[in-house]
Amino acid sequence: MPAMxxxxxxxxxxxxxxxxxxxxxxxxxxxxxxxxxxxxxxxxMQLQAAALTSHLPLFxxxxxxxxxxxxxxxxVGGIHESTPYWLNxxxxxxxxxxxxxxxRTVEKYMDGILDRQTQEGWLGPDTDRSDFWSRxxxxxxxxxHHEALRPGARRKRIEEAALRFFAAVRQRLQGxxxxxxxxxxxxxxxxxxxxxFLDALQGSAASTTLQDLAALAEHLHSHGFDWNGLWFNSSNxxxxxxxxxSMETHGVNNAQAVKHGIVWARQSGNATEGWAETWLAWEQLxxxxxxxxxxxxxxxxxAGRTPSRGTELCVVVESMWSLALASQLAPGDEEAxxxxxxxxxxxxxxxxxxxxEDLWSxxxxxxxxxxxxxSNEPDHVWANDGPQAAMYGLAPNYExxxxxxxxxxxxxxxxxxxxxxxxxxxxxxxxAPSVVNATVGLAHVELRxxxxxxxxxxxxxxxxxxxxxxxxLPKFLRTVTPAxxxxxxxxxxxxxxxxxxFLRLPIPVAARRLAVKISFAMAPSVNGYPDQGVSVYFxxxxxxxxxxxxxxxxxxxxxxxxxxxxTATLPWRLAMPPSPHLGTPRFVAPGPRPMxxxxxxxxxxxxxxxxxxxxxxVRHGAPGPVNGTCRGGEQVQxxxxxxxxxxxxxxxxxxxxxxxxxx
Length: 663
Ligand SMILES: *[C@@H]1O[C@H](CO)[C@@H](O)[C@H](O)[C@H]1NC(C)=O
Ligand SMILES: *[C@@H]1O[C@H](CO)[C@@H](O)[C@H](O)[C@H]1NC(C)=O
Ligand SMILES: *[C@@H]1O[C@H](CO)[C@@H](O)[C@H](O)[C@H]1NC(C)=O
Ligand SMILES: *[C@@H]1O[C@H](CO)[C@@H](O)[C@H](O)[C@H]1NC(C)=O
Ligand SMILES: *[C@@H]1O[C@H](CO)[C@@H](O)[C@H](O)[C@H]1NC(C)=O
Ligand SMILES: *[C@@H]1O[C@H](CO)[C@@H](O)[C@H](O)[C@H]1NC(C)=O
Ligand SMILES: *[C@@H]1O[C@H](CO)[C@@H](O)[C@H](O)[C@H]1NC(C)=O
Known about the structure:
Immunoglobulin-like, seven-stranded antiparallel β-sheet, single chain, alpha+beta
């Protein structure tokens, strides 16, 4: 790799020269821990911490005996990703919950791994000199740990370890070790961490060190797979379920690649171009593979829109992280809201829809439509995964998601707020119960709400300096103008109009806490897709037929870890009448298991039409295509609950009397 001058490089990429370092992000991330969950989100994250996040180091070979600490495990397929994946979620979770025991555990792992850093600077096991990839999630864990620490010896140690590691990567690449496979297709995850340290060390590290970092990022970008040119913006992109598989058809690779353009934009200096690439990627994935739960069909490889095809849990959490970065780094508000809409849908639908209500088990694949999730399905509808892929369990089909799902909620919580230091704006990007200590306004803000399980949000604000509270309205509130919201500032009604998706409220310095209260209407809506049937949404929530699922124990592991068969006790063959007959949604406060199927925060009664089994046959253990137009059928009263509360469900229904719907 030629030693490149950072400034020249930037001047080549840019018409103008940005003074120093990378182009500043439009919004700044708040350091891990500055946003803490409360309410139902805290409950959900505490369940996660109490379940697998805390217990994997106690009984799961890949984390307990990881090769990262000299053990014999965590080498599956010759790569070493489990412990890094786990740390990438466990670090922020421990910090956000202020969970001292978990924090001690993750620090023990971090310290142990840094203690073993080689002379060369390498981190982790070194069985394949070109396996850069397994380190990417570990570097992300280091970033989040670094963010959470006060200046001091621990923080310094992380900086030094990261610099030595980046130097080792650079040496290997210069020495001819190729950038291939996962390491190439996922290169922008590493670039993001390099950029983080470039920002963090601006002003303290030698300028040659910073130039080396920028040159390494440039090498990774130019030698890594060209996602935009060779895939998303080319005739190669798969427009239906793929048959011939490759690295670029791989679902998780695609989810990670959504960040490709927007991450690189900080170094190219062109956020418009970076956004165009990132958004084109997400739009392509949605157009040809989008599923009602917000993710895209990828049962290992891109799987199309058919709602009985699956989506891997890793696809969900990696999409969420890509979209969080896309919103933060977007060139403007109009773009940022789009990424946030997509992130919100995943966080409230696809993520909880792929975790058991106690967060002790997950399936490898979730399905918009399924009537069972059982072990050992030799005749299955998905193409590339094994017979356990639908079952809820400890590590069904493959262990990556057991290790990787931990980042879902913590990174979501970390994306609820952003800051715009230049405008002195605190951006409330997503509504979920939380508390934030912001830099702008030196503000302490409590966001009290049960949203999406309620129709009001309240901000309780204490601040030392004036600032602007900039609040994103979710998509369902932006489709009507003026938005059907009422805003009270300190008890007084204020006229607040959304501009490019955001309300802006100037917050003065007051002697006491100020309250901003926003209430709004939320009504169920029925959305149809020609190739997917119709789905019922309630605000950001996808609703699904409650099948009164039951589970049977298949195998128990240590603690509460187990594999389960889940089956339906109510019929699943139901169609939506041509003019839907929906009741009024009912709310109950989220309970100790917020996503419990038998104690769900939202229920909706509906009159549906039974479909005969001849018209909706089973194909390969799943709801098959609907045969002909389903007319007539007997009327049946049934209940919809959030998709989030179900493990198996029908969330894309045929429309009776309509066109034949392929399901
Ligand atoms: C905010 O700061 C206060 C006072 O330093 C601290 O007690 C609290 O834990 C912080 N909260 C968050 C969300 O960081
Ligand atoms: C981890 O290694 C120890 C020591 O070899 C062994 O006793 C234990 O069973 C291993 N854990 C798992 C989950 O295999
Ligand atoms: C950014 O990229 C776009 C599209 O490639 C291009 O039209 C525009 O001129 C670029 N802007 C700058 C400042 O280079
Ligand atoms: C995709 O390719 C077309 C045709 O070459 C080009 O006009 C467009 O700007 C490209 N879009 C992105 C996001 O690269
Ligand atoms: C789970 O489902 C599989 C496939 O239908 C079946 O073979 C097995 O017996 C079931 N186990 C239990 C405990 O229900
Ligand atoms: C919804 O929020 C309102 C106002 O905060 C509260 O009075 C009500 O109890 C909440 N409802 C539920 C079901 O949580
Ligand atoms: C549709 O139903 C008809 C009549 O019941 C049957 O003959 C035909 O095989 C079915 N087609 C499919 C694709 O299941």
